[in-house]
Amino acid sequence: MTQVRFATTEQELTTPNHFALIHYGDAEMREKVLDFLGPALDDQKQGIYLCGPPGGAARLLRFLERSTGRDLTAEVTERRIVLGQGDRDADQQLQNLLDPLRELCERGFDPVRVVGPAAWEVVGYAAPEDFLWYESRVLPGVEGLPAAIMCTYDAAQLPAPALLYGALETHSHTMINGVISESPSFLPADRYLKTRLIHLPWLEPEEQPREITSVREAGPAHGPRNRTR
């Protein structure tokens, strides 16, 4: 296990870790992402993997370059910083995360820090239920690896189901108002599948309206009376 520190706070994470940053707007997201990734930018022994929906990784890289005033082309070329992407197929999206993450770990980077924004009903990205399945499988997938994964959830943009079923239930830890804590709502992957994923409200079949039949058409509600005395 590796202790992962932040740039400006005394908080630490123990790897492997999969936590949700619940933020409100881009300004807070950028501040917290830089606080998380800052130590890795200054340490050649640490790796970084950026991911997300189409274009998400490139936007994160540009933000890091603007914020630090550094050209990170060399780090990308040397694959100390790896740019990934999500996929509309959740299995492929999970593989897109795990393959480069394992590569970075095998090359000796320790820890490897990952950042990716959550997306909901985005063209070219996994459907909400598939995205939730992906999120639930991340922590089992990185078991034994020195990896800390931050998924950013914008409470100003995402609907309530994304925050409840995604941020709170598929991540062992959350960061809210800059404070990291264990998520009391977290569900391990197998339990999440059985108790949440297959029962998502929008996947439940709609109840069919019952056909109303008049009493006259249906006949008497009770059986024939026994006239035997």
Q: Can you describe this structure?
A:
The structure is a single chain. The chain is an alpha/beta fold and 229 residues long. It has one domain: P-loop containing nucleotide triphosphate hydrolases (Rossmann fold, 3-Layer(aba) Sandwich). The chain contains 8 helices and 9 strands. It has helices spanning 26-41, 56-68, 73-77, 90-106, 128-141, 160-168, 189-195, 215-218; strands at residues 3-5, 12-14, 17-23, 47-50, 81-83, 112-117, 147-154, 173-176, 179-182. The strands form 2 sheets. The chain has a 7-stranded mixed β-sheet with strand order 5-4-6-7-3-8-9, sandwiched between helices. A hairpin with a 2-residue loop joins strand 8 and strand 9 (179-182). Helix 4 (90-106) runs parallel beside helix 5 (128-141). The longest helix has 17 residues, at 90-106. It is globular and about 55 Å long.
List strands and helices in order, with pairings:
Blueprint: E1 3-5, E2 12-14, E3 17-23, H1 26-41, E4 47-50, H2 56-68, H3 73-77, E5 81-83, H4 90-106, E6 112-117, H5 128-141, E7 147-154, H6 160-168, E8 173-176, E9 179-182, H7 189-195, H8 215-218
Parallel strand pairs: 3-7, 3-8, 4-5, 4-6, 6-7
Antiparallel strand pairs: 1-2, 8-9
Helix pairs in contact: 4-5
